[in-house]
């Protein structure tokens, strides 16, 4: 179905022409002003543009000029009728350089000319490729969107390792999720606000100037990722990959709660050459998206028929854990499902009903739990086997459980117990230590019971962490993804620079090991890489207090300068305030040091670093 962009400011005419285009077999995308029309053109690349000659005040001329500049081959049909009065005539619209002119857009002439132009265009003679080829195929499944349908579809596609495009349609807008081997790898939307550029702008990571540059680049034919690189917003490689992954996650989380419209799945992997594929955990997003978008009543209704049955983990539970990505709290709840009490009784025991209810719904959906009519035997899966191994001592079992629950929900760095500056031999040593300490074979003489699933999941997580962190390219791509998550959750200012973050961590290490000269050097590198991050300036200021290269009198002055630069970027920044107070003390002004730290504590009464500095000042005074 060929897309046609309709730029029409008159409401009744816009509605009439939209229906006429749809009846003729086109897919109309509609804008009522020139700016919105250009954004839609850049993001959707329609087969032709129907442009009203009286679009706003000079809007038609500006839009036509921008369209021709972006793509000289674009098909433009200009409509007239000034509005629903007398048409100005062909001579009046010649400056728009249209491929065709239609005096009255409500007549059949408009559709006829469009069909002729599209049929004669070069694109019409090229065989379908990529996503267009996939979408031209009849869908293998389709239906109405209702609460819970998208989570079920994501699970079915993942389980069947399906490849194709899942289309969610709401009126005239389409959202497309591309899948390879059952995993979502790309997202496409007809709404520029939901595209990568619009999403980055709405999340505060893209200012208006860079957004405009990216839109211009997209209009010239570049993909969203390539446009952002051309606009100087992203670097190719791991930074682009991390942005695409974060965007795909956000759109999937939003789609899980879709309740209106229709869906369909078109089979085929041919789109893969047109998208920058990234991977996310689809089952993890089902749970997160369900909790964020579906009401508790939906989970209760889905489980109503099994409330008096006995839920127990299935044999698939262990294999499903890596794809589920459960938090430590969810893991604890899941491990308590042993089939020895009814779902109703299990839910009644939980302190917080909503997370437990949604978890049980999710585990049931992905077949990680099954519901029996009778209580399960002691092992939870069938007849209790003969126990020949001695039981694992309770204190040791609890220590293993807590260690596993700490590893599984965290990052790959957390799983191996290393920081973001770790490389090479350090990663290898950490992997060997964690893998051997928590490997099931280490406890072969014991009956680990329900810890077997947990320890096997830990090995999967630790192995995956080693595979990523021991490879420089994969490690940087993963770290870029984490950095973008920090930006989007508000824990850091937008514009984090990866090399600066690594330098910061190396500087912290050097300070802990009292290698002060090295700390100053690497923290200066962090500031040079990203001078707009106050945390780097504050840490450099702290290191300057111990710089062995400088005389003692100059150290305090350098520390003050760094702290004040940090406070200029972020007033009341706790660490910068603490450094400024320490620098004032080192310079001999104890009264000013106390004033600074007390002002900081007033703004941030819970700051631990300010409390420690205040305690130090009080102790010194005493």
What's the SSE blueprint?
Layout (H helix, E strand, L loop, with lengths): L2 E5 L3 H13 L3 E5 L2 H11 L3 E5 L6 H12 L5 E4 L20 E3 L6 H12 L1 H4 L4 H7 L4 E4 L4 H11 L4 E7 L2 E8 L2 E7 L6 H7 L5 H12 L4 H7 L7 H18 L6 E6 L14 H12 L2 H8 L6 E4 L3 H8 L3 H8 L7 H7 L3 H13 L3 E4 L17 E2 L2 H14 L4 H5 L7 H14 L8 E2 L3 H19 L2 H17 L9 H15 L3 H14 L4 H11 L7 H18 L4 H13 L3 H14 L4 H14 L1
Parallel strand pairs: 1-2, 1-3, 3-4, 4-5, 13-14
Antiparallel strand pairs: 6-10, 7-8, 7-10, 8-9, 11-12
Helix pairs in contact: 2-3, 2-9, 7-12, 9-10, 11-12, 11-22, 12-17, 13-17, 14-21, 18-21, 20-21, 23-24, 23-25, 24-25, 25-26, 25-27, 26-27, 27-28, 27-29, 28-29
Structural class: alpha/beta
User: What fraction strand?
Assistant: 5-15%
Helix content: 40-55%
The general outline is globular
Mean pLDDT comes to: 83
Radius of gyration: 30 Å
* Count of domain modules: 5
Q: How many DSSP helices? A: 29
DSSP strand tally: 14
Largest sheet: 5 strands, parallel
Instruction: State the end-to-end CA separation.
Output: 81 Å
Q: Could you list the spans in which at least 5 consecutive residues all have pLDDT below 50?
A: 379-387
- Spatial ordering of strands, largest sheet: 2-1-3-4-5
Explained architecture:
This protein has five domains: 3-125, Rossmann fold (3-Layer(aba) Sandwich), CATH 3.40.50.2300; 134-284, no CATH class; 295-372, no CATH class; 390-486, Orthogonal Bundle (Helix Hairpins), CATH 1.10.287; 497-621, Serine Threonine Protein Phosphatase 5, Tetratricopeptide repeat (Alpha Horseshoe), CATH 1.25.40. 54% of the residues lie in helices and 11% in strands. The strands form four sheets. A five-stranded parallel β-sheet has the order 2-1-3-4-5, with helices on both faces. A five-stranded antiparallel β-sheet has the order 6-10-7-8-9. A two-stranded antiparallel sheet has the order 11-12. It is globular, with a radius of gyration of 30 Å.
């Amino acid at each position: 179905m060929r897309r046609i962009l309709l730029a029409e400011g008159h409401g009744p005419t816009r509605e009439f022409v939209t229906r006429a285009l749809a009846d003729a077999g086109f897919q109309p995308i509609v804008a009522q002003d020139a700016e919105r029309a250009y954004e839609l053109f850049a993001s959707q690349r329609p087969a032709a543009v129907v442009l009203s000659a009286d679009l706003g005040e000079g809007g038609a001329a500006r839009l036509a000029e921008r369209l021709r500049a972006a793509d000289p081959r674009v098909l433009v049909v200009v409509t007239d009728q000034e509005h629903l009065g007398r048409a100005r005539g062909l001579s009046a619209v010649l400056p728009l350089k249209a491929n065709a002119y239609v005096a009255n857009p409500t007549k059949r002439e408009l559709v006829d000319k469009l069909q002729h132009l599209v049929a004669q265009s070069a694109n019409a003679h090229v065989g379908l490729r990529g996503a267009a080829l996939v979408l031209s195929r009849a869908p293998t499944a389709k239906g109405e969107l209702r609460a819970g349908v998208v989570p079920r579809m994501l699970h079915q596609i993942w389980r069947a390792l399906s490849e194709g495009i899942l289309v969610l349609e709401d009126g005239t807008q389409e959202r497309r999720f591309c899948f390879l081997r059952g995993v979502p790898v790309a997202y496409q939307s007809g709404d520029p606000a939901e595209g990568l550029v619009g999403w980055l702008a709405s999340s505060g990571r893209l200012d208006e100037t860079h957004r405009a540059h990216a839109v211009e680049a997209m209009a010239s034919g570049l993909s969203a990722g390539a446009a952002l690189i051309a606009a100087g917003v992203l670097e190719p490689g791991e930074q682009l990959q991390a942005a695409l992954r974060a965007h795909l996650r956000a759109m999937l989380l939003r789609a899980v709660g879709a309740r209106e419209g229709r869906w369909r799945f078109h089979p085929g992997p041919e789109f893969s050459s047109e998208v920058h594929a990234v991977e996310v955990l689809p089952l993890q997003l089902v749970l997160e998206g369900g909790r964020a978008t579906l009401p508790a009543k939906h989970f209760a209704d889905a489980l109503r028929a099994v409330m008096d049955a006995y839920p127990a983990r299935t044999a698939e539970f262990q294999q499903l854990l890596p794809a589920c990505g459960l938090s430590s709290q969810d893991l604890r709840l899941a491990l308590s499902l042993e089939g020895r009490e009814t779902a109703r009784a299990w839910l009644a025991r939980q302190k917080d009903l909503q997370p437990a209810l949604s978890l049980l719904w999710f585990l049931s959906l992905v077949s990680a739990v099954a519901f029996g009519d009778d209580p399960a035997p002691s092992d939870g899966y069938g007849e209790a086997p003969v126990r020949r191994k001695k039981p694992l001592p309770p204190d040791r079992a609890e220590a293993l459980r807590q260690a596993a629950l700490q590893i599984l929900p965290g990052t790959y760095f957390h799983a191996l117990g290393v920081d973001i500056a770790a490389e090479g031999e350090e990663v290898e040593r950490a992997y060997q230590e964690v893998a051997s300490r928590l490997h099931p074979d280490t406890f072969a003489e014991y009956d680990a019971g329900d810890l077997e699933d947990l320890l096997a999941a830990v090995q999967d997580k630790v192995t995956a962490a080693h595979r990523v962190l021991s490879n420089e390219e994969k490690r940087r791509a993963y770290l870029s993804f984490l950095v973008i998550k920090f930006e989007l959750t508000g824990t850091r200012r937008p514009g984090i620079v990866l090399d600066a973050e690594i330098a910061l961590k190396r500087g912290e290490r050097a300070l802990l090991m009292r290698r002060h000269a090295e700390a100053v050097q690497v923290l200066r590198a962090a500031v040079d890489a990203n001078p707009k991050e106050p945390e780097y300036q504050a840490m450099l200021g702290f290191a300057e207090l111990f710089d062995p290269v400088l005389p003692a009198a100059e150290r305090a002055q350098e520390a003050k300068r760094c702290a004040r630069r940090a406070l200029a970027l972020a007033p009341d920044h706790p660490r910068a305030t603490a450094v400024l107070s320490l620098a004032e003390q080192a310079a001999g002004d104890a009264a000013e040091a106390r004033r600074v730290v007390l002002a900081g504590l007033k703004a941030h009464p819970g700051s631990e670093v300010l409390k420690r500095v205040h305690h130090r000042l009080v102790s010194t005074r005493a």
